[in-house]
Design goal:
Number of strands: 0
Radius of gyration: 19 Å
Largest sheet: none
CATH architecture: Up-down Bundle
Number of helices: 12
Strand content: under 5%
Helix content: over 70%
Structural class: mainly alpha
Length: 314
C-alpha cells in the first residue's frame, strides 16, 4: 500500500505541483493576466494539438477495432451526472431550467485537456494515449451539442444560428484538428522524421508543463464567490459519482484493461471551463460553475489519488 502510494505520488505530485506553481505566480502578481491568456492560447492552439498529432501518428491502434463498451461506459456516466446535476439544481436549489442545464453540463464535462492529458499520459504512457485522444475527439462536441440543444430548444426552439456557431466552434477547434490530422497521418502511414520530427518533439514536450501552469494561472480567475452549495454538489458529482458509474460499467462491458482505466480516470477529471464559458454567455449559473471549476480542481488532488489506488496504478 505504501509503495503504491509512493508510486502514485510520483504521478500526481508533479502535475498538481505545477498547477499550484501557476496559481501562486498569479496570486503573487509574478505573472499577470496577459501571461495567463497568452500561455493558455499557446497550449490550446499549438502545443497540445501537436502533442496529439504526434502521438496518434506514431500510435499502435488495437487490432480488434473500437471497443464499443468503452464509449458506452464513459457516456452513460457522463449523461447520468448531467441529469443528476440538472435535477439537483431544480429540486435542491430551486434554479430555473436554463441554469439547471449549466449545472448539468458542469457536472458532466471534465477538464480533459489541461488536467486529463497530463495525468493519463503520466500514469499510462503511450499505451493510454490512443483511448485518451479518441475519447477527447468526441467528448467536447457531444457534451456541448447536448447542452446547447437543451438550453435553446426549450426557449423558443433551436435556431440555425446556434447550430452554425457550434459548427464553427468545432470546425476550428485546434484540439480536434490535431486529432483529425493525427488520424489521417496514421491512416496514410505518415510519421514525421528528421528536422520536422525534432521540431514537433520540442513543441510536444512543452505541452504538459505549460498546460498545468496555465491552469494554475487560470484558477485565480475562477474564485469561490457564493453558491457554495451548488458548486460542492457539482464537484462531488464530477469527481465521485461520474467515475464510480464508469468504474462499475467497465467491469462488465468488453474493452482492453488500459482502455477501462483511462475511461475511469477521464471521468474523474475536475470540471472543465467550457461550462463556465457557456454560463457567461447565457448569464446564468456563473458563480456556481466558476466555483465548481476551482473547487473540483483542488479536491481532485485527493480524489484522483483514490481512484488511482482503486485502479491499481503504481
Amino acid at each position: 500500500m505504501l509503495a503504491q502510494l509512493g508510486a502514485i505520488a510520483f504521478i500526481v505530485a508533479p502535475v498538481f505541483g505545477l498547477i499550484g506553481l501557476g496559481f501562486v505566480a498569479s496570486v503573487s502578481g509574478h505573472l499577470r493576466e496577459r501571461a495567463a491568456e497568452g500561455l493558455s492560447e499557446y497550449v490550446f492552439g499549438l502545443a497540445v494539438p501537436v502533442l496529439i498529432f504526434k502521438t496518434l501518428a506514431e500510435a499502435q491502434l488495437p487490432e480488434a477495432g473500437q471497443p464499443w463498451g468503452y464509449w458506452i461506459a464513459y457516456f452513460t456516466g457522463a449523461f447520468a451526472v448531467f441529469a443528476l446535476g440538472m435535477l439537483a439544481a431544480r429540486r435542491l436549489f430551486g434554479r430555473d431550467y436554463t441554469e439547471s442545464v449549466i449545472h448539468g453540463l458542469t457536472s458532466g464535462q471534465g477538464n480533459t485537456v489541461f488536467v486529463g492529458v497530463p495525468l493519463i499520459l503520466q500514469a499510462y504512457g503511450p499505451e493510454g494515449a490512443v483511448p485518451l485522444f479518441l475519447l477527447l475527439a468526441v467528448h467536447l462536441p457531444i457534451m456541448m451539442l447536448v447542452a446547447i440543444v437543451l438550453t435553446e430548444g426549450a426557449s423558443g426552439g433551436l435556431s440555425a444560428a446556434s447550430l452554425r456557431r457550434l459548427a464553427r466552434l468545432l470546425a476550428f477547434n485546434p484540439i480536434l484538428l490535431g486529432i483529425f490530422l493525427g488520424a489521417i497521418a496514421k491512416l496514410v502511414d505518415f510519421q514525421p522524421g528528421g528536422l520536422l520530427k525534432q521540431t514537433l518533439d520540442m513543441l510536444a514536450a512543452s505541452a504538459v508543463p505549460c498546460a498545468l501552469v496555465s491552469l494554475g494561472l487560470a484558477l485565480h480567475r475562477y474564485p469561490m464567490r457564493g453558491d457554495f452549495g451548488p458548486a460542492m454538489t457539482i464537484a462531488l458529482l464530477k469527481l465521485i459519482v461520474h467515475p464510480a458509474i464508469v468504474f462499475a460499467l467497465v467491469q462488465v462491458l468488453p474493452m482492453p484493461p488500459v482502455w477501462a482505466n483511462v475511461a475511469v480516470v477521464f471521468a474523474a477529471m475536475p470540471c472543465g471551463i467550457n461550462a463556465y464559458l457557456l454560463a457567461q454567455r447565457y448569464g446564468v449559473g456563473v458563480a456556481a460553475s466558476a466555483g465548481a471549476v476551482s473547487l473540483s480542481t483542488v479536491l481532485s488532488l485527493f480524489t484522483v489519488t483514490v481512484w488511482f489506488l482503486i485502479l491499481g496504478v503504481g
